[in-house]
Protein backbone atom coordinates (compact mmCIF):
# COMPACT_ATOMS: atom_id res chain seq x y z
CA UNK A 1 0.00 0.00 0.00
CA UNK A 2 1.20 3.49 -0.92
CA UNK A 3 2.16 5.72 2.02
CA UNK A 4 -0.53 8.20 0.97
CA UNK A 5 -3.18 5.52 1.61
CA UNK A 6 -1.88 4.91 5.11
CA UNK A 7 -2.86 6.86 8.19
CA UNK A 8 -0.35 4.97 10.34
CA UNK A 9 2.79 3.07 9.42
CA UNK A 10 4.91 1.61 12.22
CA UNK A 11 7.98 -0.49 11.48
CA UNK A 12 10.22 -2.17 14.06
CA UNK A 13 9.07 0.03 16.95
CA UNK A 14 11.17 -0.29 20.11
CA UNK A 15 10.63 1.15 23.58
CA UNK A 16 12.49 0.17 26.74
CA UNK A 17 11.89 1.19 30.33
CA UNK A 18 15.21 0.28 31.96
CA UNK A 19 15.74 -3.40 31.11
CA UNK A 20 12.08 -3.91 30.22
CA UNK A 21 11.31 -4.12 26.48
CA UNK A 22 7.80 -2.68 26.59
CA UNK A 23 7.62 -2.53 22.79
CA UNK A 24 9.90 -4.91 20.96
CA UNK A 25 9.82 -4.72 17.17
CA UNK A 26 6.19 -3.80 16.63
CA UNK A 27 4.90 -3.45 13.05
CA UNK A 28 1.47 -2.03 12.26
CA UNK A 29 -0.30 -0.23 9.44
CA UNK A 30 -3.67 1.49 9.48
CA UNK A 31 -5.21 2.44 6.14
CA UNK A 32 -7.02 5.76 5.80
CA UNK A 33 -10.69 5.29 6.71
CA UNK A 34 -10.02 2.06 8.56
CA UNK A 35 -10.92 1.14 12.16
CA UNK A 36 -8.21 -0.98 13.76
CA UNK A 37 -8.53 -2.43 17.26
CA UNK A 38 -5.40 -3.34 19.20
CA UNK A 39 -5.93 -6.21 21.63
CA UNK A 40 -3.49 -7.67 24.09
CA UNK A 41 -3.05 -8.64 27.72
CA UNK A 42 -2.16 -6.14 30.45
CA UNK A 43 1.38 -4.89 29.95
CA UNK A 44 1.61 -6.01 26.30
CA UNK A 45 2.69 -2.52 25.18
CA UNK A 46 -0.54 -1.14 23.71
CA UNK A 47 -0.69 2.18 25.58
CA UNK A 48 3.03 2.76 25.13
CA UNK A 49 2.62 2.27 21.37
CA UNK A 50 -0.41 4.57 21.16
CA UNK A 51 1.37 7.26 23.19
CA UNK A 52 4.37 7.10 20.85
CA UNK A 53 2.03 7.48 17.85
CA UNK A 54 0.35 10.44 19.58
CA UNK A 55 3.74 12.11 20.05
CA UNK A 56 3.55 11.91 23.85
CA UNK A 57 6.31 9.37 24.34
CA UNK A 58 9.77 8.99 22.81
CA UNK A 59 10.75 5.77 21.11
CA UNK A 60 14.09 4.01 21.26
CA UNK A 61 13.99 2.63 17.73
CA UNK A 62 11.95 1.93 14.63
CA UNK A 63 10.16 4.09 12.14
CA UNK A 64 6.78 5.77 12.77
CA UNK A 65 4.65 7.77 10.36
CA UNK A 66 1.27 9.14 11.44
CA UNK A 67 -0.59 10.97 8.66
CA UNK A 68 2.74 10.91 6.83
CA UNK A 69 4.61 12.69 9.63
CA UNK A 70 7.00 11.46 12.33
CA UNK A 71 5.20 12.36 15.59
CA UNK A 72 8.60 13.05 17.19
CA UNK A 73 9.03 16.14 15.04
CA UNK A 74 5.39 16.97 14.28
CA UNK A 75 4.08 20.50 14.76
CA UNK A 76 0.78 22.19 15.53
CA UNK A 77 -0.74 21.55 12.10
CA UNK A 78 -0.30 17.82 12.53
CA UNK A 79 -1.70 17.91 16.08
CA UNK A 80 -4.87 19.58 14.80
CA UNK A 81 -5.41 16.65 12.41
CA UNK A 82 -5.14 14.02 15.15
CA UNK A 83 -7.78 13.37 17.83
CA UNK A 84 -6.56 12.11 21.14
CA UNK A 85 -8.71 10.80 23.93
CA UNK A 86 -6.67 11.02 27.08
CA UNK A 87 -7.38 8.68 29.98
CA UNK A 88 -9.54 10.66 32.41
CA UNK A 89 -7.86 14.05 32.62
CA UNK A 90 -9.21 15.86 35.65
CA UNK A 91 -8.20 19.41 34.79
CA UNK A 92 -10.82 22.11 34.73
CA UNK A 93 -13.15 20.14 37.00
CA UNK A 94 -15.08 23.34 37.74
CA UNK A 95 -15.89 24.00 34.06
CA UNK A 96 -19.19 22.80 32.68
CA UNK A 97 -19.36 20.24 29.86
CA UNK A 98 -20.46 22.93 27.44
CA UNK A 99 -17.69 25.35 28.49
CA UNK A 100 -15.02 22.68 28.19
CA UNK A 101 -16.06 21.50 24.72
CA UNK A 102 -16.26 25.11 23.50
CA UNK A 103 -12.87 25.84 25.04
CA UNK A 104 -11.24 22.90 23.23
CA UNK A 105 -13.01 23.73 19.95
CA UNK A 106 -11.15 27.06 19.85
CA UNK A 107 -7.81 25.27 19.47
CA UNK A 108 -8.76 23.89 16.05
CA UNK A 109 -8.99 25.55 12.63
CA UNK A 110 -12.20 23.78 11.58
CA UNK A 111 -13.96 22.45 14.69
CA UNK A 112 -17.27 20.65 14.84
CA UNK A 113 -20.20 22.50 16.35
CA UNK A 114 -19.78 22.00 20.15
CA UNK A 115 -23.51 21.42 20.71
CA UNK A 116 -23.61 18.74 18.02
CA UNK A 117 -20.62 17.03 19.61
CA UNK A 118 -22.25 17.12 23.05
CA UNK A 119 -25.36 15.55 21.51
CA UNK A 120 -23.34 12.94 19.65
CA UNK A 121 -21.73 11.65 22.85
CA UNK A 122 -25.10 11.66 24.65
CA UNK A 123 -24.35 14.45 27.12
CA UNK A 124 -27.01 16.98 26.15
CA UNK A 125 -28.69 16.71 29.54
CA UNK A 126 -25.35 17.22 31.28
CA UNK A 127 -24.20 20.15 29.15
CA UNK A 128 -24.52 22.59 32.07
CA UNK A 129 -23.11 20.24 34.70
CA UNK A 130 -19.63 20.76 36.08
CA UNK A 131 -17.25 18.04 34.95
CA UNK A 132 -16.50 17.01 38.55
CA UNK A 133 -20.19 16.09 38.89
CA UNK A 134 -20.10 13.57 36.04
CA UNK A 135 -20.09 9.81 36.57
CA UNK A 136 -17.10 7.81 35.31
CA UNK A 137 -18.87 6.80 32.10
CA UNK A 138 -20.11 10.34 31.46
CA UNK A 139 -16.58 11.68 32.05
CA UNK A 140 -15.29 9.22 29.48
CA UNK A 141 -17.87 10.42 26.95
CA UNK A 142 -16.69 13.96 27.59
CA UNK A 143 -13.12 12.80 26.89
CA UNK A 144 -14.36 11.46 23.56
CA UNK A 145 -16.16 14.75 22.84
CA UNK A 146 -12.89 16.61 23.39
CA UNK A 147 -11.10 14.15 21.11
CA UNK A 148 -13.50 14.62 18.19
CA UNK A 149 -14.41 18.32 18.43
CA UNK A 150 -11.44 19.26 16.23
CA UNK A 151 -12.79 17.08 13.38
CA UNK A 152 -9.70 14.82 13.39
CA UNK A 153 -8.67 12.74 10.38
CA UNK A 154 -7.30 10.14 12.76
CA UNK A 155 -8.69 9.36 16.21
CA UNK A 156 -6.80 7.47 18.91
CA UNK A 157 -8.93 5.83 21.59
CA UNK A 158 -7.21 4.06 24.47
CA UNK A 159 -9.70 1.73 26.17
CA UNK A 160 -12.56 4.10 25.42
CA UNK A 161 -15.41 2.17 27.06
CA UNK A 162 -13.79 0.88 30.22
CA UNK A 163 -16.33 1.38 32.99
CA UNK A 164 -19.29 1.94 30.65
CA UNK A 165 -22.58 0.23 31.33
CA UNK A 166 -23.84 -1.93 28.41
CA UNK A 167 -26.25 0.72 27.17
CA UNK A 168 -23.58 3.42 27.17
CA UNK A 169 -21.19 1.05 25.40
CA UNK A 170 -23.68 0.41 22.61
CA UNK A 171 -24.35 4.15 22.27
CA UNK A 172 -20.61 4.70 22.06
CA UNK A 173 -20.30 2.06 19.35
CA UNK A 174 -22.94 3.89 17.32
CA UNK A 175 -20.95 7.09 17.74
CA UNK A 176 -17.75 5.44 16.52
CA UNK A 177 -19.57 3.82 13.60
CA UNK A 178 -20.89 7.26 12.63
CA UNK A 179 -17.40 8.76 12.75
CA UNK A 180 -16.07 5.90 10.64
CA UNK A 181 -18.86 6.36 8.12
CA UNK A 182 -17.87 10.04 7.98
CA UNK A 183 -14.34 8.99 6.95
CA UNK A 184 -12.47 9.22 10.28
CA UNK A 185 -9.65 6.71 10.72
CA UNK A 186 -9.71 5.16 14.18
CA UNK A 187 -7.07 3.26 16.14
CA UNK A 188 -8.37 1.95 19.44
CA UNK A 189 -7.21 -0.34 22.19
CA UNK A 190 -9.69 -2.45 24.07
CA UNK A 191 -9.99 -5.44 26.37
CA UNK A 192 -13.50 -6.15 25.12
CA UNK A 193 -13.49 -8.73 22.34
CA UNK A 194 -17.08 -7.91 21.52
CA UNK A 195 -16.11 -4.28 21.03
CA UNK A 196 -13.31 -5.22 18.64
CA UNK A 197 -15.63 -7.55 16.74
CA UNK A 198 -18.33 -4.91 16.50
CA UNK A 199 -16.19 -1.94 15.51
CA UNK A 200 -12.98 -3.03 13.88
CA UNK A 201 -12.22 -3.64 10.23
CA UNK A 202 -9.04 -5.31 11.43
CA UNK A 203 -7.77 -6.52 14.78
CA UNK A 204 -4.10 -6.52 15.80
CA UNK A 205 -3.13 -8.78 18.70
CA UNK A 206 -0.11 -7.53 20.64
CA UNK A 207 1.87 -9.85 22.87
CA UNK A 208 5.13 -8.94 24.62
CA UNK A 209 5.54 -5.75 22.63
CA UNK A 210 4.92 -7.04 19.13
CA UNK A 211 2.01 -7.79 16.85
CA UNK A 212 1.51 -11.56 16.71
CA UNK A 213 -1.57 -11.56 14.46
CA UNK A 214 -3.50 -9.04 12.44
CA UNK A 215 -6.61 -9.75 10.40
CA UNK A 216 -10.31 -9.09 10.14
CA UNK A 217 -12.25 -10.24 13.22
CA UNK A 218 -13.82 -13.02 11.13
CA UNK A 219 -10.49 -14.36 9.86
CA UNK A 220 -8.14 -13.76 12.78
CA UNK A 221 -6.02 -16.82 13.49
CA UNK A 222 -7.67 -18.73 10.64
CA UNK A 223 -10.97 -18.47 12.51
CA UNK A 224 -13.28 -18.67 9.53
CA UNK A 225 -11.44 -21.70 8.17
CA UNK A 226 -11.68 -23.67 11.41
CA UNK A 227 -13.98 -26.63 11.58
CA UNK A 228 -17.33 -26.40 13.29
CA UNK A 229 -18.27 -28.87 16.00
CA UNK A 230 -21.75 -30.40 15.79
CA UNK A 231 -23.18 -31.97 18.96
CA UNK A 232 -26.41 -33.86 19.38
CA UNK A 233 -28.01 -36.59 21.48
CA UNK A 234 -28.79 -39.98 19.97
CA UNK A 235 -30.28 -42.93 21.84
CA UNK A 236 -29.51 -41.08 25.08
CA UNK A 237 -25.81 -40.70 24.19
CA UNK A 238 -24.11 -37.33 23.64
CA UNK A 239 -22.41 -37.32 20.20
CA UNK A 240 -19.91 -34.87 18.74
CA UNK A 241 -18.33 -34.52 15.30
CA UNK A 242 -16.03 -31.93 13.67
CA UNK A 243 -16.94 -30.90 10.15
CA UNK A 244 -16.24 -28.41 7.37
CA UNK A 245 -19.87 -28.68 6.27
CA UNK A 246 -22.10 -28.22 9.35
CA UNK A 247 -25.21 -27.37 7.32
CA UNK A 248 -25.06 -30.64 5.37
CA UNK A 249 -24.44 -32.53 8.57
CA UNK A 250 -27.37 -30.93 10.39
CA UNK A 251 -29.61 -31.62 7.38
CA UNK A 252 -28.59 -35.29 7.45
CA UNK A 253 -29.17 -35.49 11.21
CA UNK A 254 -32.54 -33.82 10.81
CA UNK A 255 -33.77 -36.35 8.27
CA UNK A 256 -32.55 -39.24 10.43
CA UNK A 257 -33.36 -38.14 13.99
CA UNK A 258 -36.23 -35.69 14.19
CA UNK A 259 -39.21 -37.19 15.92
CA UNK A 260 -42.55 -35.68 16.80
CA UNK A 261 -40.93 -32.40 17.98
CA UNK A 262 -39.28 -31.77 14.60
CA UNK A 263 -36.01 -31.07 16.45
CA UNK A 264 -32.68 -32.89 16.51
CA UNK A 265 -32.29 -33.69 20.26
CA UNK A 266 -29.66 -31.50 22.00
CA UNK A 267 -28.43 -29.94 18.75
CA UNK A 268 -25.51 -27.47 19.01
CA UNK A 269 -23.29 -26.06 16.27
CA UNK A 270 -20.15 -24.55 17.78
CA UNK A 271 -17.55 -22.34 16.14
CA UNK A 272 -14.54 -20.66 17.73
CA UNK A 273 -15.36 -17.18 18.99
CA UNK A 274 -12.98 -14.26 18.61
CA UNK A 275 -12.23 -14.73 22.31
CA UNK A 276 -11.23 -18.38 21.79
CA UNK A 277 -8.88 -17.38 18.97
CA UNK A 278 -7.49 -14.45 20.94
CA UNK A 279 -6.79 -16.55 24.02
CA UNK A 280 -5.00 -19.07 21.82
CA UNK A 281 -2.84 -16.34 20.29
CA UNK A 282 -1.71 -14.96 23.64
CA UNK A 283 -1.53 -18.30 25.42
CA UNK A 284 2.27 -18.61 25.18
CA UNK A 285 2.68 -15.40 27.10
CA UNK A 286 3.40 -16.26 30.73
CA UNK A 287 2.10 -12.97 32.05
CA UNK A 288 -1.03 -13.35 29.98
CA UNK A 289 -1.59 -16.89 31.16
CA UNK A 290 -1.35 -15.67 34.74
CA UNK A 291 -3.67 -12.73 34.16
CA UNK A 292 -6.28 -14.39 31.99
CA UNK A 293 -8.50 -17.24 33.11
CA UNK A 294 -8.52 -20.26 30.80
CA UNK A 295 -11.66 -20.55 28.69
CA UNK A 296 -14.17 -23.06 29.96
CA UNK A 297 -14.63 -24.45 26.46
CA UNK A 298 -12.21 -24.52 23.59
CA UNK A 299 -15.09 -23.56 21.36
CA UNK A 300 -17.84 -21.10 22.08
CA UNK A 301 -21.44 -21.31 20.96
CA UNK A 302 -22.15 -20.21 17.41
CA UNK A 303 -23.51 -16.68 16.95
P1 LIG B 1 -2.88 -2.46 29.80
O1 LIG B 1 -3.73 -3.39 29.00
O2 LIG B 1 -2.73 -2.93 31.22
O3 LIG B 1 -3.26 -1.01 29.68
P2 LIG B 1 -0.68 -2.08 27.90
O4 LIG B 1 -0.66 -3.13 26.85
O5 LIG B 1 -1.25 -0.76 27.54
O6 LIG B 1 -1.37 -2.63 29.23
P3 LIG B 1 1.71 -0.59 28.56
O7 LIG B 1 1.05 0.38 29.49
O8 LIG B 1 2.12 -0.11 27.25
O9 LIG B 1 0.82 -1.90 28.40
O10 LIG B 1 2.97 -1.16 29.35
C1 LIG B 1 3.90 -2.05 28.73
C2 LIG B 1 4.99 -2.41 29.75
O11 LIG B 1 5.78 -1.26 30.04
C3 LIG B 1 4.46 -2.90 31.10
O12 LIG B 1 5.30 -3.93 31.56
C4 LIG B 1 4.53 -1.69 31.98
O13 LIG B 1 4.72 -2.05 33.32
C5 LIG B 1 5.76 -0.97 31.43
N1 LIG B 1 5.67 0.49 31.57
C6 LIG B 1 4.71 1.30 31.03
N2 LIG B 1 4.94 2.59 31.33
C7 LIG B 1 6.06 2.61 32.08
C8 LIG B 1 6.82 3.65 32.71
N3 LIG B 1 6.47 4.93 32.61
N4 LIG B 1 7.94 3.29 33.39
C9 LIG B 1 8.31 2.00 33.50
N5 LIG B 1 7.65 0.97 32.93
C10 LIG B 1 6.54 1.27 32.23
Summed up:
It is built from ten helices and 13 strands. The strands form three sheets. A six-stranded mixed beta sheet has the order 5-6-7-3-8-9, with helices on both faces. Strands 11-10-12-13 form a four-stranded antiparallel beta sheet, with helices on one face. It has a three-stranded antiparallel beta sheet with strand order 2-1-4, covered by helices on one side. Among the domains are: 3-81 and 152-220, Rossmann fold; 227-270, no CATH class.
What would you say this structure looks like, in words?
There is one protein chain. The chain is α/β, with parallel strands linked by helices. Among the domains are: 3-81 and 152-220, 3-Layer(aba) Sandwich (Rossmann fold); 227-270, no CATH class. It contains ten helices and 13 strands. The chain has a six-stranded mixed beta sheet, sandwiched between helices. The protein has a four-stranded antiparallel beta sheet with strand order 11-10-12-13, with helices on one face. The chain has a three-stranded antiparallel beta sheet with strand order 2-1-4, with helices on one face. The longest helix has 16 residues, at 166-181. The chain is globular and about 70 Å long. Mean pLDDT is 87; it is low at 287-303. Bound molecules: adenosine-5'-triphosphate (ATP). Adenosine-5'-triphosphate binds next to strand 2 and helix 1.
